[in-house]
Amino acid sequence: LWSEISGISCVVHCSDGWDRTSQTVSLAQLLLDPFFRTIHGFQVLVEKDWLGFGHKFDDRCAHIGALNDEAAKEVSPIFSQFLDCVHQIMQQRPRAFQFNDRYLIDIHEHVYSCQFGTFIGNCEKDRKVGSALFI
User: Fold this and answer.
1) Which residue positions form the known binding site for substrate?
2) In this predicted model, what pLDDT tens digit does every residue of 49-89 receive, in sequence order?
3) For this UniProt entry, which residues form the secretion signal (predicted)?
4) For residues 34-59, b (16+ Cβ closer than 10 Å) or e, as one string?
5) Of these residues, 14, 85, 114, 123, which one is catalytic?
6) Taking the model in full, what pTM does it have?
Protein backbone atom coordinates (compact mmCIF):
# COMPACT_ATOMS: atom_id res chain seq x y z
CA LEU A 1 0.00 0.00 0.00
CA TRP A 2 2.81 2.40 0.84
CA SER A 3 4.32 1.99 -2.63
CA GLU A 4 0.93 2.72 -4.23
CA ILE A 5 0.49 5.93 -2.25
CA SER A 6 4.08 7.01 -2.81
CA GLY A 7 4.02 6.18 -6.52
CA ILE A 8 6.90 3.75 -6.19
CA SER A 9 7.04 0.78 -8.53
CA CYS A 10 7.78 -2.73 -7.37
CA VAL A 11 8.74 -5.96 -9.10
CA VAL A 12 6.86 -9.17 -8.37
CA HIS A 13 8.25 -12.35 -9.84
CA CYS A 14 7.89 -16.01 -8.96
CA SER A 15 10.21 -18.73 -10.19
CA ASP A 16 8.83 -18.76 -13.75
CA GLY A 17 6.79 -15.54 -13.86
CA TRP A 18 3.50 -17.08 -14.99
CA ASP A 19 1.12 -18.43 -12.40
CA ARG A 20 1.60 -16.94 -8.95
CA THR A 21 2.85 -13.67 -10.39
CA SER A 22 -0.33 -13.04 -12.37
CA GLN A 23 -2.51 -14.05 -9.44
CA THR A 24 -0.69 -11.88 -6.90
CA VAL A 25 -0.31 -8.79 -9.06
CA SER A 26 -3.89 -8.94 -10.34
CA LEU A 27 -5.34 -9.27 -6.86
CA ALA A 28 -3.18 -6.44 -5.53
CA GLN A 29 -4.36 -4.13 -8.31
CA LEU A 30 -7.96 -5.17 -7.76
CA LEU A 31 -7.68 -4.29 -4.07
CA LEU A 32 -5.74 -1.05 -4.53
CA ASP A 33 -7.40 0.53 -7.56
CA PRO A 34 -11.20 0.85 -7.86
CA PHE A 35 -10.87 1.12 -11.67
CA PHE A 36 -10.14 -2.62 -11.82
CA ARG A 37 -13.41 -3.30 -9.99
CA THR A 38 -15.39 -1.89 -12.94
CA ILE A 39 -16.40 -4.06 -15.88
CA HIS A 40 -14.03 -2.26 -18.24
CA GLY A 41 -11.24 -2.18 -15.65
CA PHE A 42 -11.51 -5.92 -15.00
CA GLN A 43 -11.29 -6.57 -18.74
CA VAL A 44 -8.17 -4.41 -18.90
CA LEU A 45 -6.69 -6.27 -15.93
CA VAL A 46 -7.26 -9.71 -17.49
CA GLU A 47 -5.97 -8.58 -20.89
CA LYS A 48 -2.89 -6.94 -19.40
CA ASP A 49 -1.82 -9.29 -16.61
CA TRP A 50 -3.05 -12.60 -17.98
CA LEU A 51 -3.26 -12.46 -21.77
CA GLY A 52 -0.60 -9.81 -22.37
CA PHE A 53 1.97 -11.34 -20.05
CA GLY A 54 1.53 -14.79 -21.57
CA HIS A 55 -0.41 -16.88 -19.09
CA LYS A 56 -0.31 -20.44 -20.42
CA PHE A 57 -4.05 -20.92 -20.96
CA ASP A 58 -3.57 -23.90 -23.30
CA ASP A 59 -1.29 -25.72 -20.88
CA ARG A 60 -3.12 -24.83 -17.68
CA CYS A 61 -6.63 -25.46 -19.01
CA ALA A 62 -5.76 -28.50 -21.17
CA HIS A 63 -7.30 -26.87 -24.24
CA ILE A 64 -5.34 -29.09 -26.58
CA GLY A 65 -5.74 -31.98 -24.20
CA ALA A 66 -3.22 -33.70 -22.04
CA LEU A 67 -1.53 -35.45 -24.95
CA ASN A 68 1.00 -37.15 -22.74
CA ASP A 69 2.04 -37.44 -19.11
CA GLU A 70 4.36 -34.45 -19.41
CA ALA A 71 1.58 -32.19 -20.75
CA ALA A 72 -0.79 -33.44 -18.06
CA LYS A 73 1.62 -32.15 -15.41
CA GLU A 74 1.09 -28.59 -16.71
CA VAL A 75 -2.69 -28.59 -16.14
CA SER A 76 -3.62 -26.41 -13.17
CA PRO A 77 -6.61 -24.19 -12.33
CA ILE A 78 -4.55 -21.01 -11.92
CA PHE A 79 -7.02 -18.64 -13.60
CA SER A 80 -9.96 -20.38 -11.91
CA GLN A 81 -8.26 -19.78 -8.56
CA PHE A 82 -7.90 -16.11 -9.43
CA LEU A 83 -11.59 -15.84 -10.31
CA ASP A 84 -12.46 -17.58 -7.04
CA CYS A 85 -10.32 -15.10 -5.11
CA VAL A 86 -12.17 -12.26 -6.83
CA HIS A 87 -15.46 -13.93 -5.88
CA GLN A 88 -14.35 -14.18 -2.24
CA ILE A 89 -13.41 -10.49 -2.17
CA MET A 90 -16.76 -9.63 -3.76
CA GLN A 91 -18.54 -11.52 -0.98
CA GLN A 92 -16.89 -9.22 1.55
CA ARG A 93 -17.46 -5.95 -0.34
CA PRO A 94 -20.11 -6.50 -3.05
CA ARG A 95 -20.87 -2.79 -3.46
CA ALA A 96 -17.23 -2.08 -4.33
CA PHE A 97 -17.65 -3.94 -7.64
CA GLN A 98 -19.50 -2.91 -10.77
CA PHE A 99 -20.01 -6.57 -11.71
CA ASN A 100 -21.33 -9.66 -9.97
CA ASP A 101 -20.74 -13.42 -9.85
CA ARG A 102 -22.52 -13.93 -13.17
CA TYR A 103 -19.77 -11.93 -14.89
CA LEU A 104 -17.06 -14.11 -13.33
CA ILE A 105 -18.94 -17.26 -14.31
CA ASP A 106 -19.28 -16.01 -17.90
CA ILE A 107 -15.55 -15.34 -18.10
CA HIS A 108 -14.79 -18.78 -16.64
CA GLU A 109 -17.09 -20.45 -19.17
CA HIS A 110 -15.39 -18.61 -22.05
CA VAL A 111 -11.96 -19.74 -20.84
CA TYR A 112 -12.95 -23.39 -21.16
CA SER A 113 -15.36 -23.19 -24.12
CA CYS A 114 -12.68 -21.93 -26.55
CA GLN A 115 -15.57 -20.41 -28.49
CA PHE A 116 -14.04 -17.00 -29.15
CA GLY A 117 -10.29 -17.63 -29.09
CA THR A 118 -9.52 -14.98 -26.48
CA PHE A 119 -8.19 -17.54 -24.01
CA ILE A 120 -6.70 -19.97 -26.52
CA GLY A 121 -2.94 -20.30 -26.70
CA ASN A 122 -0.08 -19.79 -24.29
CA CYS A 123 0.82 -16.33 -25.59
CA GLU A 124 -0.25 -13.61 -28.03
CA LYS A 125 1.68 -15.28 -30.86
CA ASP A 126 -0.32 -18.51 -30.36
CA ARG A 127 -3.59 -16.56 -30.52
CA LYS A 128 -2.57 -14.75 -33.72
CA VAL A 129 -1.44 -17.96 -35.41
CA GLY A 130 -4.59 -19.75 -34.22
CA SER A 131 -6.92 -17.03 -35.45
CA ALA A 132 -5.25 -17.11 -38.88
CA LEU A 133 -6.00 -20.82 -39.13
CA PHE A 134 -9.73 -20.27 -38.65
CA ILE A 135 -10.20 -17.43 -41.17
Assistant:
1) 14-20
2) 999 988 888 888 887 755 677 778 888 889 999 999 999 99
3) none
4) eebbeeebbeebbeebbbebbbbbbb
5) 14
6) 0.85
